[in-house]
Amino acid sequence: MEALSRRWWWALAALLAVVALVYAVPLRGADFAWDDGALVVDNALTGSLANWRELLQADLWRTTRLPAPHSGYYRPLFLLHLALDQALFGLSAPAHHMVSLGWHLLATVLLAALLRRLVGDLPALLGAAFFALHPIQSETVALIAARNDSMAAALLLAALLACLPLRVASWRLALAALATFAALLSKESAVLAPAFLLALDLARWRRPRGWLRYGAMALGVVAYGGMRLWSGVGSAALPDAGKLSTVAPKALHIGAVYGSLISWPWPLTPARHVDWLPPISGLLLGCMLTVAAFGLALVFARRRGLVLAGLALAVLAFLPSLAATFDKGLLGERYLYLPMAGLALAVAAALPARARVAAWAAPVLLAWCGVLLLRLPDWHDSATLWRAADRSASSPFTQGGLAWYLRRDGDLQGALELVVGAIRGEPPYTDACPFLAMIPLEQGRAQQAAELGAWGLNDRGCPPTVELLGAYAIGLAGSGQWEQAMAVAQRPELRGPSTGQVVLAAGMVLQGNQLPMQRFAAAWPGGADDFTQRVVKLLRLAGHEVHAPQAPLRPSPGAP
Fold first, then answer.
1. Residue 520 above 90 pLDDT?
2. What would the 3-class secondary structure string for 71-132 be?
């Protein structure tokens, strides 16, 4: 018996070595990507562990330098982990990636140990391999900003493992409470931990038993609730009725996307949005394979109760992610990280404990390794990631996302072409609208900024934001259309210190009236000199030679 146990641990070690190799080779030279920029590189608090008190009280997205609204995401353990990593490794992206890989390996070990107690040695190894090597897990491992998913999963699995026996020692109860508490401090979805334990109990004994086990987990949930109240973060922002009415009718389509990825994980892309879902006809085969596989498992498996429990765990773990989808419209592969642990239980419970099953599973696992080796290099950096996303599943959303990074990297023409494509799409990707006029201005093309601004506002439903209207007004003024420019600058959206005041001041200077110029400059947030330089720049863009910019402005003769 001891020899069999030792052999099992050696087999698990071999699995972990394969997982580590498949992930470490492509990620060892990877940089930060996507949300890593805001949450890791430019985070206002995680640069020093001295900010630990602020990190314990912070809304996740308000720790970034972005003008982020209240998100209600309270994940202090994740933020403290990022601060510790930066204290140890600085901003070495490969080191951060290896830490994320370490959490994935830890989750795999804990899941394997849990499955072994439930279904036996060989099925447990195969279930753990399903969880560890399934390509859909790549987003959580490769995106450092998504590490909170693997942290919450590993800690939640530790709590379940501690509570698995009916009669548990005091130290196990303490461990379960602490692990549940820590899982919640990593991600809020772990609040369903007692429900996961209930599903396992119903599968094994058809009723809940051992109430101290539930009490330990509930204690962790209560402690988290108290800490959240102390932090003052508040609840997560709920999506408005308009978003719900838009997304809810697409629930089956969303389910088909995820269902297809489970049995046919290709293409993998972080850039899926409910407004631009792939045709459902292309999802049917993969979705039907997934439904058929787990349907057959329910019918023929000897451990039918555990299969049902695994499916219940997957559904329960997935449900909290719908709030993010309803709010932002995003479909993230990371949202399936913890649900895949439930599906791994269903797979393990359905498999017979026969050596030849491993031979049948080997080609599938080998194919998944190949998919990971093909997919993970796309996470080299943000631009590479979004190029791959636009190549594999092009949509207005991927075009707008890629345009943002091309503009950041100085490829203004490439960015503008993608922005125009994103706004031309159906429906238009309106988050890219401000760039319609901003990018041509950065290229010195005022006329094009005016034309594209008008097209976006009048023909493509672009919202009249301060950014778009301001750039549009500058484009009109810079191309000599002062009457229209000043009309736009006086719109209600541009009241207060904004680009509209720059346009108004420049227009009045051309008419010989410098009083608005002096009034606006006195209240300008950047100071009077900054305001003056902006007015000078606009007048020169419009072809007026401005004399003595530090003195009262005097346009060249011939100005209207």
1. no
2. CCCCCHHHHHHHHHHHHHHCCCHHHHHHHHHHHHHHHHHHHHHHHHHHHCHHHHHHHHHHHH
